[in-house]
């Protein structure tokens, strides 16, 4: 669990600021603007920095929140407190509609898509009569509690910063959870997360809606702060600026959003106030200087200022080892399970004219280690992808425990008890080893986003982390548990992937080149671990180029060449098979 005291200290400082004698009112206005901007940036942290979905369109969601309360409270006299849930709801619903078309986009189409609807909604706000067209809506009532009317910047300050602090707490809670790990895994692509049961479209939609709701909250507060709204602050330029705020502060960090908002709001204000004086009234130069300063900041700290600052702090948070005595229930295994775990029957995969897997058949029995070998490009990884649902077969059948897998997606295949590692390691480098491995236990937990935000997931979370810690210790990386996965050697990262796959409590483990990059002793330890797993009832199918390792370990070997199975048998038989020597072993000898 993360330390909460920095948040408490920050809350006390924020609460004390308005009471500092001689505090200029204008500074309070600046702090109000920083808080409003920080709320939007916090959503962008989750969306862009954590989830990897770049959005230029967040200002439009601020507009939905602001206009909803403006219309209802100014035109229909609805209490501002009643319009709060409605503002959040309208922003959230707008995100559902826009998200359905946007989050499916990939690469540069996604940011362009957000820019397109950001521009479109700005024009919509300025054309609709009931929103007051370009003039907007004025006469918005202030927020009030009993007889206290939040008319001046010094009183609404408390509402704005309470919203910032509560949102920061909820967002940190969300990120530090089962759902948060699924969201954080998205940035490295969807294949690894989906292999452990994460539905990435659902996770993407969740962050999209969450970011929009935070922007809507900012809009609701903004409307009652300025007491008038018009389309200008909700256009594409504002959308780009919000993204700047998040990136400058540190797009992967909740507090980066707050820091970025402070930097950008203060910098803009200082430049607008003092640059014209210095340059004798030359207009618009502040925009250019503002741009140059921001780019310089990004050169200094490319991942944002928050990580740059925290890396220089004299103290580091101390991570606690999970209590490994807490147990997750094991997978229920049928007493009379069939001896054939996996049956690959005439599987074929074509990519256009390339036949990557050519009518290949083999099986994996219970408590057996089978190796799939062959030269580069023989179709081994493609076979793994067919078995795990990453790719649909062109023809043929794959069945697990007698049940046809058909075209099941990876999320369904892992539920059958098949887990895997990847030829090209797919860990999230800036998540700890423990957090990466805990993604493997995703399907064994059940807490959702809301319960995580309110910390109702702790019992579930403790079990998942305990399981992850146990598997990390099992593979011999207990000392590295709290290190970032990206700081480990490539060989160790492969072992972390094995621990993640073990968290599924699989019946069949698919390992793609697990020994690549390992030193001799590490290979021996890996071999011992795999034998121990087999003795415990697990089966292993592995792709490996280290023939010494394979021959020592495997019960049976299947050899592929140009997508076709050319041999199958015990290591002794394969070693002396002339066709295998000609196609592969001769070359590796
Ligand atoms: N998505 C794809 N589109 C087109 N061709 C592909 C695709 N994936 C794999 N191939 C081709 O299919 C063939 C088999 O590739 P695969 O990666 O399965 O081989 P491999 O045995 O795992 O090789 P290596 O040992 O080098 O990893 C290769 O010719 C490869 O170029």
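Sequence proposed for the structure above (589 residues):
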């Amino acid at each position: 669990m993360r330390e909460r005291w920095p948040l408490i200290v920050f809350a006390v400082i924020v609460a004390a600021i308005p009471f500092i004698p001689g505090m200029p009112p204008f500074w309070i206005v600046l702090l109000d603007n920083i808080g409003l901007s920080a709320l939007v940036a916090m959503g962008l942290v989750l969306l862009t920095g954590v989830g990897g979905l770049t959005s230029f369109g967040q200002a439009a969601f601020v507009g939905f929140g602001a206009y909803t309360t403006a219309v209802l409270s100014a035109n229909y006299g609805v209490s501002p407190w009643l319009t709060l849930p409605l503002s959040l709801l309208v922003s959230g619903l707008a995100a559902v509609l826009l998200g359905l078309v946007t989050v499916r986009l990939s690469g540069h189409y996604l940011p362009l898509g957000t820019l397109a609807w950001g521009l479109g909604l700005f024009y919509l706000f300025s054309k609709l009569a009931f929103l007051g067209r370009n003039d907007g809506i004025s006469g918005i009532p202030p927020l009030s509690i009993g007889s206290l009317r939040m008319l001046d910047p010094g009183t609404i300050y408390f509402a704005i910063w309470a919203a910032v602090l509560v949102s920061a707490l909820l967002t940190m809670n969300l990120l530090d959870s089962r759902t948060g790990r699924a969201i954080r895994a998205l940035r490295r692509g969807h294949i690894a997360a989906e292999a452990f049961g994460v539905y990435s479209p659902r996770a993407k939609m969740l962050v999209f809606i969450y970011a929009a709701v935070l922007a809507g909250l900012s809009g609701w507060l903004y409307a009652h702060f300025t007491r008038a709204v018009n389309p200008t602050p909700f256009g594409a330029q504002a959308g780009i600026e919000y993204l700047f705020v998040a990136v400058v502060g540190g797009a992967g960090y909740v507090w980066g959003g707050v820091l970025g908002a402070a930097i950008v709001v203060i910098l803009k204000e200082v430049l607008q106030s003092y640059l014209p004086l210095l340059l004798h009234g030359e207009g618009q130069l502040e925009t250019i200087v503002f741009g140059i300063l921001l780019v310089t900041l990004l050169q200094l700290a490319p991942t944002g200022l928050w990580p740059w600052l925290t890396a220089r702090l004299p103290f580091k948070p101390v991570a606690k080892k999970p209590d490994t005595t807490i147990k997750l229930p094991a997978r229920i295994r049928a007493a009379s399970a069939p001896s054939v775990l996996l049956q690959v029957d005439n599987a074929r995969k074509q990519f256009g004219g390339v036949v990557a897997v050519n009518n290949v058949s083999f099986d994996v029995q219970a408590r057996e280690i089978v190796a799939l070998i062959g030269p580069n490009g023989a179709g081994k990884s493609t076979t793994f992808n067919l078995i795990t649902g990453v790719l649909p077969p062109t023809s043929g059948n794959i069945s697990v425990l007698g049940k046809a897998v058909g075209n099941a997606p990876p999320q369904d295949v892992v539920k059958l008890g098949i887990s895997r590692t990847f030829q090209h390691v797919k860990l999230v480098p800036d998540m700890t080893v423990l957090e990466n491995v805990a993604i493997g236990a995703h399907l064994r937990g059940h807490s959702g986003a809301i319960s995580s935000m309110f910390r109702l997931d702790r019992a579930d979370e403790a079990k998942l982390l305990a399981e992850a810690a146990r598997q990390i210790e099992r593979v011999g990386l207990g000392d590295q548990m709290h290190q970032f996965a990206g700081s480990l050697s490539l060989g160790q990262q492969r072992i972390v992937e094995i621990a993640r796959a073990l968290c599924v409590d699989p019946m069949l483990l698919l390992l793609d080149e697990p020994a690549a990059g390992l030193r001799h002793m590490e290979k021996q330890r890996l071999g011992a671990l795999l034998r121990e797993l087999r003795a415990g009832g697990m089966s292993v199918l592995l792709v490996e180029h280290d023939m010494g390792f394979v021959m020592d370990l495997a019960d049976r070997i299947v050899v592929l060449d140009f997508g076709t199975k050319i041999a199958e048998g015990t290591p002794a038989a394969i070693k002396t098979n002339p066709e295998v020597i000609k196609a592969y072993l001769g070359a590796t000898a």
